[in-house]
Amino acid sequence: MTAQACAAISLVAGGWSAALAQSAAPAVALTPVATGLANPWAVAFLPDGQFLVTERPGRMRVIQATGQVGPALDGVPQVAAGGQGGLLDVVTDADFARNRRIFFCFSEPAAGGGSGNSTALARATLAADARSLQDVKVIFSQRPKVDSSLHFGCRIVQAPDGNLLLTLGERFHRKDDAQKLDNHHGKIVRITPDGAVPADNPFRQRQGALPEIWSYGHRNPQGATLAPDGTLWMHEHGPQGGDEINLPQPGRNYGWPVITYGENYGGGKLGEGTAKAGMEQPLHYWVPSIAPSGMAFLTSTRYGDSWKGSLFVGSLKFGTLHRLEVAQGKVQREEKLLQGNGERIRDVRQGPDGLLYLLTDSPNGRLLRLQPS
Q1: What is residue 15's predicted lDDT score, i.e. its pLDDT?
Q2: Which of 93, 151, 225, 273 has its C-alpha lying 20 to 30 A from 48's C-alpha?
């Protein structure tokens, strides 16, 4: 069955997803902005056309508008680099122009040389000369720490109210934890910029539940973004097949590992099927998996009216960029772009100029601009 035929929805999106204008597909080309990046993971946008990029081995760099890659910033904390772990997502605060604050997440080693690691979220101030991080503070640390180099999740979204949403993987070997509320594995958590628990979090008053939890039953969510109406969208890696797009709602259970559209590695049934009472259905899913990465909505008309409002999702597995048209609360059409590009796409963001920017995941990774041609 094709991904289009498999589309499903449990929630209806807002009016921004009205029927999209039909016109000829725009001609686009990939334009290199910067090269020589070591497994870059995330890009954020700074004033004057600059970029802030993380490299998974544990470095953060500023790239000039000219494409010149700056030295590694001082002040980045130690990361548990290895496997899927390292320095991962980064975003700028909504009020960055005034406070120069950023938020970043990483795989945090246990303190004092102990065993295990987990996903942590930190805030910091980018120095005025953009050469170091100052006032670095970890404001959230996933519990418990475990010995694993897999499934860190680690995408950050700052909601319109200023609170932070962080996606957390279930660490692969601890998949059953995703259904339990006494740990942070396989969850989305919601905290304030200072690390406090918002008063309206869904499990704040439930005995035995960790109050930071926003939603649960997730596998390895490595993409998250806000829709133009402020709704949180995310995707998560399935096992063998069954990558999902979800619209996480407070207190809801998204099913992993009880329900899935995927199967065990090597084949065989996993869980109890594809649906169960009390568990949410995905908005959209992929069989076979595309290994989704960054995701972003396009709100500009830089590529013409037909692409405005589309959701763009990168693929690590195929190196493609997937454009999803969403209307009447469903994915109506999926278009694969950049076929044959041959590079793993790690991040997808819309820049202040209204254009899409991509990061490619390799020891010689690149920052690319999708340029109308």
Answers
A1: 29
A2: 225
Q: pTM here?
A: 0.92
DSSP 177: G
**DSSP per position, 7-58:** ---SS---GGGSPPPP-PPPPEEEEEEEEEESSEEEEEE-GGG-EEEEETTT
Instruction: Write down the residue that tokens 């998204």 correspond to.
Output: 254
Distance of alpha carbon 314 from alpha carbon 359, whole angstroms: 9
Structure token digits, residue 75? 């002040």
H helix intervals, the chain: 96-99
Q: What is the DSSP string of 105-144?
A: EEEEEPGGG-S-EEEEEEEEEE-TTSSBEEEEEEEEE-SS
Residue 327: predicted pLDDT = 83
Whether the per-residue pLDDT at 23 is higher than 90: the answer is: no
Q: Which helix (H) or strand (E) holds 296?
A: strand 292-297
> Is residue 251 classed as helix, strand or coil in its secondary structure?
coil
**Mean pLDDT over all residues of the chain?**
93
Report the relative pairing of strands 133-141 and 117-126 from DSSP bridges.
antiparallel
Can you name the residues that pair with 273 across neighbouring β-strands? 259
Q: Which burial class, exposed, middle or buried, applies to 251 when counting CB atoms under 10 A from its CB (0-12, 13-18, 19+)?
A: middle
CA–CA gap between residue 4 and residue 104 (Å, rounded): 34
CB 284 within 8 A of CB 3: yes
The identity of residue 268, as a single letter, is G
Cite the active site residues.
151
296-346 pLDDT per residue, tens: 999 999 999 999 999 999 999 999 999 999 987 789 999 999 998 889 999
Single-letter amino acid, residue 54: T
Residue with tokens 């998560």: 236
Cβ contacts of 212 within 8 Å, gap of 6 or more: 140, 184, 189, 190, 191, 197, 201
Residues 6+ apart with CB under 8 A from 343: 319, 360, 361, 362, 366
CA distances from 315 to 176, 178, 196 (A): 26, 24, 34
Burial class (CB in 10 A: 0-12, 13-18, 19+), 278: exposed
CA–CA distance, 42 with 47 (Å, rounded to integer) = 17
